[in-house]
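Hey L., structure's done. Input below.
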Amino acid sequence: MAACNHSRWEPSHDYRPLETNTERQAWLVVALTGATMLVEIAAGYAFNSMALLADGWHMASHMLAIGLTALAYLLARHYADDPRFAFGTWKIEVLAGFASALLLLVVVALLLFESLWRLWQPQAIAFEVALGVAVLGLLVNLLSAWLLREQQGHGHVHAHGEHAHAAPAAGKDLNRQAAFLHVLADALTSVAAIVALLGGWLFGWSWLDPLMGVIGSVIIALWAKGLLSETAKVLLDREMDSPVVLRVRSALAQEADSELADLHLWRVGRAQYACIVSVVTHGDLSADRYKLRLAGVSELVHVTVEVNRCAENAP
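Output:
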């Protein structure tokens, strides 16, 4: 008997869109953030501005987080063909996003503590010079945000015989979103620093400097909470409330004398899902027939169907 060419039934499990610029842009933002961070921290200590110092240390944490983002892209690309990753390396990026969200919360706690302390113990600030550095920080943050903005990617095709399928690039890049939120948080603290320094310089409102730190902390905490929830959902495979589940159930319900006994669905890419389906039927429909029914659910890129026939279990 001739050997069977089984490669046609072995699809690729790399569901990450091919984006050549994302990793390079992340490393560029790391360099920009690091240089600005050094300037702001030095100026914050020199001119005794809490808003400026908080922005600088905040930027330091973001440099680490964005570096984690870039490293995740590098590792996901490097191990893309490693068979030890059952469904590809996309979740490396999601894990980096989760870690970045945790780091954001640490930054919030430190920023809030220092701001409240400065409200209790006000200190003199060199407003004019500090203001110029804060404006520089804001410009760098805006440039970084532009580099990390979400762009429309291009899907790539996995071709393996009759099981070829296109993996669309639709869906949110949680790793990139994490880096973008860090930059956005930096921009927020820069704006807060500018407002606080202007208020102190023009009106003598020295209390405005640490107050802006408190307000910024609350806003950043809300961003971090949303990112934590979204990335944790992916990492824990909490997807059974996804609209895709309803579409799978609806597609299988079109087969007469068939009942869905069990369904497991989880994400393997930004908008790509794998599922395991168990159906019960009195008929003689094959697993391929049910897979054909599910072909209209474009988000499904890996489907396993188990058919249980009632006649086989009859006494």
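Residues 148 and 180 are 6 Å apart (CA to CA). The chain has two domains: 9-235, 243-313.

-- N.
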